[in-house]
Design a protein that fits this description.
alpha/beta; three-stranded antiparallel beta sheet; globular; 19 helices; six-stranded mixed beta sheet
Length: 473
């Protein structure tokens, strides 16, 4: 996105939020998905925020990091829906000036939080129109919430964050609100992938962060009672089963090309190291035919998971539009994989989270890549499912023959570094951010869908036998 468009979005964030806070905002998001400005996963993540002004805040932040056409598309959508005042904030020169009524006149002379006169001099020709639109936004928003005060508070907290870290290390109060700010302002590395991880032995150095704060310990204790309505219980030791299906060796294709998935063994080795530290029982099945994969899924669906809190399935394979391609070149539909673990087929996992990470792609558009995989998933499930596929429809998934697939490589890093403080949806957002930093922007975007009904924390380092009376101090 052009720098001047980013400046407009950030400068007018408060006013845009005020104007859009009372409109059919989900409809706007749906149009942005249709125009491929945001993904379905991004839309779901935005709608998870509450109240609506938080959704609008997040959308503006996402748009500021989107492609060059995103600004114009967003403007056209606002204009099409008749939200002309909001559209005027983006391109005021396209609108005739609207007379300000008495209530707005008084607001025109006020400075808005975040309003920067030096920046606005670049748009002097449209100053009056922009000022009128901004003033109307201020008027409408006063009936809702004082968002400007919140924005000012966030800025103040952010400015003092380093000082807070020093106080927090000394046991100062106020941990919760600062931890929330930490999750708003990304703590991800600015360079990705990290050069020190781009080798075949990186998995040997994985060490899950267990620097758990008091707030997380409190959440852990609450979740282990089984009575909390917003956090999944995650206290069993072990947590549950992690099934890894890794299809590496395939017969050559019709053109005689070698279809071996080089680098997939590195993914598996890293997954084993990571999830054993998270106290999961890891089982790896390799090079399965379609029949063998079905038998394996049935085997796990018929197990008794009563004493466990979670089930994870990671599948790495080739694929096509029909589903997951097995080593005999037969496919298994994605819906079938999930159905094995629904309430009917796996009752002991009812109301427990089922997590699926799928390393494959949909095929389709050619993208710069070293090697590629392929897959598809769409289904409305009952609750407590989470599915993250490595790429969006019509795009390919990328895999490095040295350190493995971009998708799993990134998930492993994010879980290792951030699962001690972030729940699964936030972890997934971080994965999407980093995967897009590989190569050219938008080269690969994970496609994640969630039917979870609560927040899911992995609580690394916190282990408790199945005794609700036990707590961690």
């Amino acid at each position: 996105m052009l720098s001047e468009h980013k400046e407009i979005l950030q400068q007018e964030k408060t006013s845009l939020t005020a104007l859009l806070n009372t409109v059919d905002f989900p409809h706007v998001l749906q149009d942005l998905v249709k125009q491929q400005v945001i993904s379905n996963y991004m839309r779901s993540d935005i709608l998870c925020q509450s109240p609506q002004h938080e959704q609008i805040f997040l959308l503006v932040d996402i748009l500021a990091t989107s492609g060059d056409k995103s600004f114009d598309i967003f403007y056209q959508i606002l204009k099409t829906h008749g939200y002309k005042t909001a559209a005027a904030l983006l391109k005021p020169n396209d609108f005739e000036l609207v007379e300000a009524d008495g209530d707005v006149d008084g607001l025109l002379s006020q400075r808005f939080i975040g309003y920067n006169h030096r920046e606005v001099t670049r748009y002097e020709a449209s100053y009056t129109a922009r000022a009128v639109a901004r003033a109307r936004a201020e008027k409408e928003f006063k009936a809702e919430n004082d968002l400007r005060s919140r924005e000012k508070e966030i800025r103040a907290l952010t400015a003092g964050y380093e000082a807070h870290l020093r106080r927090r290390n000394k046991g100062a109060a106020g941990r919760d609100i600062y931890d929330r700010i930490e999750s708003v302002y990304s703590d991800l590395p600015t360079e990705w992938p990290l050069p020190e991880r781009c080798h075949e032995n990186y998995y040997k150095y994985i060490q899950v962060n267990t620097d758990t704060c008091k707030d997380m310990i409190h959440k852990y204790n609450i979740s282990s009672t089984g009575h909390h309505k917003q956090i999944y219980k995650m206290s069993a030791a072990p947590r549950g089963y992690l099934l890894v299906i890794n299809n590496k060796h395939f017969p050559a294709n019709d053109e005689g090309q070698d279809m071996t998935r080089q680098g997939s063994d590195i993914d598996v080795a890293a997954i084993q190291v990571l999830f054993k530290q998270l106290n999961f029982t890891v089982d790896v099945r390799s090079d399965l035919t379609a029949q063998e994969m079905r038998e394996t899924l049935v085997e796990y669906s018929q197990m008794n998971h009563t004493q466990y809190d979670c089930f994870i399935c990671i599948i790495a394979s080739h694929g096509d539009d029909g589903g997951i391609v097995c080593t005999d070149r037969h496919t298994i539909p994605h819906d079938e994989v999930y159905e094995y673990f629904d309430h009917e087929h796996c009752p002991t996992l009812k109301n427990k989270p089922k997590i699926f990470l799928i390393q494959a792609c949909f095929g389709g558009k050619e993208e710069r890549s070293s090697e590629r995989d392929s897959l598809n998933t769409q289904r409305n499930h009952e609750g407590d499912f989470f599915a993250s596929v490595c790429t969006m429809p019509d795009y390919q998934s990328l895999r490095d023959p040295v350190y493995g697939s971009w998708f799993l490589f990134t998930w492993i890093y994010v879980i290792e570094k951030f699962s001690h403080k972030n729940h699964l949806i936030d972890l997934s957002t971080k994965v999407t951010n980093l995967v897009q930093q590989f190569g050219f922007k938008d080269n690969q975007t994970p496609n994640t869908t969630t039917w979870l009904t609560k927040d899911l924390y992995l609580f690394p380092g916190l282990y408790q036998q199945n005794n609700p009376g036990n707590t961690v101090e």
